[in-house]
């Protein structure tokens, strides 16, 4: 039985989580950053200011896993007489047929010929845009693989081979994309360069923690501060310098030796008419959750907006932090975090990093006698945690009792990375279904001391 106090904490946690997810919902996020009076089209910039344009034509290029939802919003807002073209490139899983939009499917995470053709079309649109027209670029994660447009001396097959090696090497997304930018005509500011001197504005949904704009989909519209030498040293550090196709290595070496132009850097003329707005990210979702808990009457503390580390260790640290904090608080307390933990798999159970963190939190809270009624939610904003249909877990101060009453041993199951079955038994799985967005994970701890 869940008591009424815990019941209302659980309802609040769920509502706040959903508000965090909604803050990153691609369709809504794009709509929040556009305006029209029926005749003109304008943008709402990051600082909240409104800017109506005098663009006679708007060319819309959307790519990434959220391209369909983003382009749908743009199509609904931009007056038809201004819309020159509307193209969306996404991966097979995320294709949604839309009226009036040229929709192209391509492969992710390894590029394919379809992506190459889509990239050619996008490049042609950018090049054809005239001065004083607007190229509106809607960017979401996955864009790097979906729009492969290798430099002329590197074939698509060679680029696929290089991507494959990098994916398998454990390279970070920033490292991967440093190399991809230096093999591409579109990435690392390439799209802005092609569109110049037309105006370029990008609405960017970040799937990269820390929101390095030039890493998201390899930053096609923003300056790239990395170099050919950086790309080569990344390949060397991963022992790939002699495994990548010879054409790829030669291109990077020619670049390093100054025989090929660098990717455009900040201050470069090609960015004179280029701007962007970050419209969704883990940090923005964390912020939305923080506001929601305050609106619900909680005293709110931000624990971390870049949570990283082993899920179970982070759970214990959070328990200890909460215990220390409660001592000095008499009022309802919300402790908020966002980020992406990891799980080192040791067992053969089923689960995900959020479910593992929730289970570990419940065990650790009991071990450290976390007082009062509390609820802890850890969920993936994409609604899918690991290879399960749950988004994560939501545990409370009665969770361990429910598990024991059901005859299971939570500690043993955690050791087997079996968080899914364990939380299912205590009715603590967080089930939202796929959400259509992906800005990493959110953690919400609500406490009535
Ligand atoms: N039994 C398990 N328990 C906890 N985590 C797991 C388990 N099985 C897989 N995982 C984790 O799930 C992660 C993949 O989850 P997923 O939600 O698909 O990731 P992403 O959101 O990064 O695409 C892997 O990094 C792996 O560590
Ligand atoms: O497109 C990309 O470069 C990255 C980051 O935005 O996403 P993914 O990990 O899906 O390749």
UniProtKB/TrEMBL annotation:
Acetylation keyword on record: no
Keywords from the UniProt entry: ATP-binding, Kinase, Nucleotide-binding, Transferase
Entry EC no(s): 2.7.1.165
Cellular component, GO annotation: cytoplasm
Highest taxon of source: Bacteria
The MOFRL domain, residue ranges: 334-441
Pfam families: DUF4147 (PF13660), MOFRL (PF05161)
SUPFAM superfamilies, per database record: GckA/TtuD-like
Keyword Transferase in annotation: yes
Domain MOFRL-associated: 14-253
MF annotations from Gene Ontology: ATP binding; glycerate 2-kinase activity; glycerate kinase activity
Enzyme class: transferase
Record's protein name: Glycerate 2-kinase Gck
Native source species: Crenothrix polyspora
């Amino acid at each position: 039985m869940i008591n009424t106090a815990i019941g209302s904490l659980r309802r609040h946690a769920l509502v706040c989580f959903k508000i965090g997810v909604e803050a990153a919902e691609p369709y809504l996020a794009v709509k929040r950053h556009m305006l029209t009076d029926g005749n003109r089209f304008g943008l709402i910039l990051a600082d909240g200011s409104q800017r109506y344009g005098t663009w006679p034509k708007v060319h819309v290029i959307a790519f990434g896993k959220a391209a369909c939802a983003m382009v749908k919003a743009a199509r609904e807002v931009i007056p038809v007489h201004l819309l020159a073209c509307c193209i969306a490139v996404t991966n097979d899983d995320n294709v949604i047929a839309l009226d009036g939009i040229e929709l192209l499917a391509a492969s992710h995470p390894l590029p394919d010929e379809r992506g190459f053709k889509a990239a050619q079309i996008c490049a042609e649109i950018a090049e054809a845009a005239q001065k004083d027209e607007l190229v509106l670029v809607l960017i979401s994660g996955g864009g790097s693989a979906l729009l492969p447009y290798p430099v002329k001396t590197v074939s698509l097959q060679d680029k696929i081979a290089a991507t494959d090696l990098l994916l398998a090497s454990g390279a970070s997304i920033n490292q991967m994309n440093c190399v991809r930018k230096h093999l591409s005509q579109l990435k690392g500011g390439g799209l802005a360069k092609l569109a110049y001197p037309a105006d370029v504005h990008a609405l960017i949904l970040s799937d990269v923690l820390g929101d390095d704009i030039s890493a998201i989909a390899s930053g096609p519209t923003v300056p790239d501060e990395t170099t050919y030498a950086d790309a080569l040293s990344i390949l060397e550090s991963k022992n790939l310098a002699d495994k990548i196709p010879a054409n790829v290595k030669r291109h990077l070496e020619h670049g390093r030796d100054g025989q090929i132009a660098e990717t455009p850097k900040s201050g470069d003329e090609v960015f004179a008419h280029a701007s962007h707005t970050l419209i969704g990210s883990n940090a923005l979702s964390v912020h939305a959750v923080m506001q929601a808990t305050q609106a619900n009457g909680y005293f709110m503390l931000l624990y971390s907006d870049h949570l990283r580390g082993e899920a179970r260790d982070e759970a214990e640290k959070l328990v200890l932090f909460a215990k220390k904090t409660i001592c000095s608080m008499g009022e309802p307390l919300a402790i908020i975090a966002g980020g992406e933990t990891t799980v080192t798999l040791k067992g053969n159970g089923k689960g995900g990093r959020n479910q593992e963190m929730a289970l570990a939190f419940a065990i650790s809270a009991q071990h450290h006698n976390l007082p009062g009624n509390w609820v802890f939610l850890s969920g993936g904003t994409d609604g899918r945690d690991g290879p399960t249909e749950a988004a994560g877990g939501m545990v409370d101060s009665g969770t361990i009792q429910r598990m024991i009453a059901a005859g299971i041993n939570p500690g043993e199951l955690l050791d087997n990375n079996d968080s899914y079955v364990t939380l299912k038994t205590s009715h603590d799985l967080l089930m939202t279904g796929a959400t259509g967005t992906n800005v990493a994970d959110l953690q919400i701890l609500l406490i009535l001391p």
